[in-house]
From TrEMBL:
Coiled coil: none annotated. This is dihydropyrimidinase. GO terms for molecular function: dihydropyrimidinase activity; metal ion binding. It catalyses: 5,6-dihydrouracil + H2O = 3-(carbamoylamino)propanoate + H(+). SUPFAM superfamilies: Composite domain of metallo-dependent hydrolases, Metallo-dependent hydrolases. InterPro entries: Amidohydro-rel, Hydantoinase/dihydroPyrase, Metal-dep_hydrolase_composite, Metal_Hydrolase, Metallo-dep_Hydrolases_sf. PANTHER family: COLLAPSIN RESPONSE MEDIATOR PROTEIN, HYDRANTOINASE/DIHYDROPYRIMIDINASE FAMILY MEMBER. Its EC number is 3.5.2.2. The modification N6-carboxylysine is found at K154.
Length: 502
């Protein structure tokens, strides 16, 4: 049997290994069918000569916001997924978002399917944002969702229109425990933020910079500790999304050393950007709005360092973009923060773009150079294999091994790019009008992105080669626990005490 595609002369990197130079990848019908040497080829076999290049599994970005009603000037599936493949991401997990007034999630999911079907350049799945988890939804609809391959939910502890109280959080965690879906949580204390915001506003402090003042680390710290406690009580695994503060991450680390199944995520903005960016430029003080996201950028470089440590030492299971952009120069985008006639941060839509720059930014620090901060295997774990496992794509995505989808990123040696790549808005493929990483240099950029055996991105020859129907909906299985285990004991409870009531 000859292969459709053989990738030769590369250095294959997986979550566990950096294989010796020259092992070939044989691809047939969109799947990796074997690794070996001198693989059979015939006149119809396409060859990619990855001479000396690292070959990593396609990126899995497990946290992107595409086509959500609350980001009308952000990316839809077409622009968002196009941006994804240009940066080496072949799978995105986006959100289907319930509004509080909606008493069924079935039409919500149908709506997002309509928004994505035949509009995506990369493979995609959905997490369900639950803002009104009624007993009907949890008992009757969640089993259906799982059957349909939507095996994870996101819960908010903040944002007035979305937040859940502790009793609702507990109900969802108990349901997750029995049904086996994965629970993501946005952990910030809502009342702390409201109190400070009202008082800042009364004092006239409403510039974008005060967004960071209004959401102090203690708000993330408290909510993080609280949701870990609720997860411990209910013996339910969670993933805390977009973590930004050292004090909050310490709770995660401590829980992990007790073997609790507490996972955490951080994002590029919390490795690279500080809150001074919210002050804007001397040309335009409002420009700080470009960097308004929640949790906010932090003040102290020590927090960036702490996130880097969590990246390197295994505290974080996923490194996702939280791509949640709004256009800057648009009356319904970031400029909503000027609608009252003054700069008012609470009117600025939250979120930054980042789906395209996620892999190149982290890859610049991966490897064994003196300035590297993580190994290549760790890079693969964080950006691809671990989110695939956690969200039920194990066996399909996140690995270069027989049976997996042939999703690959090929990074030619850095010398090919001479002086690295300067990130500029004009080279990106998203639908918004800026990048917070403008002018930042990365060492490398994916030369090829391959989605199920098809070359969909060629940096030097045509750019985007894929099409809007290349991306398929991923019917996911139940997620695996990557960190810790269930069945542990609860601090302060007698062994077995929980068995009386769960
Ligand atoms: O600022 C952010 N991250 N906005 C997107 C929504 C969310 O909380 O993930
Ligand atoms: Zn969030
Ligand atoms: Zn200037
Ligand atoms: Zn988000």
């Amino acid at each position: 049997m000859a292969f459709d595609l053989v990738v030769v002369n590369g250095i294959i990197v997986t979550a566990s290994d950096v294989l010796p130079l020259g092992i070939e990848i044989g691809i047939k019908d969109g799947k990796i069918s074997c690794l070996g040497s001198s693989l059979p080829r015939d006149a119809n076999t396409q060859i990619i000569d990855a001479k000396g290049a690292y070959v990593t599994p396609g990126g899995v970005d497990s946290h992107v916001h595409f086509a959500q009603d609350n980001c009308p000037t952000g990316d839809d599936f077409t622009t968002g997924s196009r941006s994804a493949i240009a940066g080496g991401t072949t799978t995105v997990l986006a959100f289907a978002s319930q509004e509080k007034s909606e008493t069924s999630v079935i039409p919500v999911v149908e709506e997002y399917h309509t928004k994505a079907t035949n509009q995506s350049y990369c493979d995609y799945g959905f997490h369900l944002i639950l803002t009104n988890p009624t007993p009907e939804i949890m008992q009757k609809e969640m089993p259906l969702m799982i059957e349909q391959g939507i095996t994870s939910v996101k819960l908010y502890m903040t944002y007035e229109p979305m937040k859940l109280g502790d009793s609702e959080l507990l109900e969802v965690l108990m349901s997750a425990r029995s049904l086996g879906f994965t629970t993501m949580v946005h952990a910030e204390n809502s009342d702390i933020i409201s109190l400070i915001t009202d008082r800042l506003e009364a004092a006239g402090h409403t510039d974008p910079y005060f967004h960071a003042i209004s959401r102090p680390q203690i708000a993330e710290n408290e909510a993080t500790y609280r949701i870990i406690s609720l997860a411990e009580l209910t013996d339910s695994p969670i993933l805390i999304v977009h973590m930004s503060s050292e004090i909050a991450v310490k709770h995660v680390r401590k829980a992990q050393t007790r073997m609790l199944p507490i996972h955490a995520e951080t994002c590029p903005q919390y490795l690279f950007l500080l809150s001074e960016r919210l002050k804007g430029s001397h040309h335009d003080a409002f420009e700080g709005a470009k960097c308004v996201c929640s949790p906010p950028l932090r003040h102290d470089p020590k927090d960036l360092e702490a996130m880097w440590r969590g990246i390197a030492n295994g505290t974080f299971t996923t490194f996702s973009s939280d791509h949640a952009p709004s256009s800057y120069d648009h009356p319904n985008g970031k400029k909503l923060g000027l609608k009252s006639g003054i700069m008012r941060y609470r009117d600025i839509p939250n979120g930054v773009p980042g789906v395209e720059t996620r892999l190149p930014l982290l890859f610049s620090y991966a490897g064994s150079d003196k300035d590297s901060r993580l190994g290549l295997q760790r890079f693969v774990q964080l950006t691809s294999s671990d989110p695939a496992k956690l969200y039920g794509l194990d066996g399909t995505k996140g690995n270069i091994a027989p049976g997996y989808d042939a999703d690959l990123v090929i990074w030619y040696p850095e010398e090919d790019l001479k002086d690295g790549v300067n990130i500029e808005q004009k080279m990106l493929h998203h639908g918004v009008d800026y990048t917070p990483y403008e002018g930042m240099k990365v060492k490398n950029w994916p030369r090829y992105t391959i989605l199920r055996g098809k070359k969909v991105w060629d940096r030097d020859n045509g750019g985007i080669l894929g099409g809007m129907s290349d991306g398929k909906f991923l019917k996911r299985g139940k997620g695996k626990i990557v960190v810790g285990k269930t069945g542990g004991e609860v601090n302060g409870m007698l062994a077995g005490e929980r068995d009386y009531w769960v």
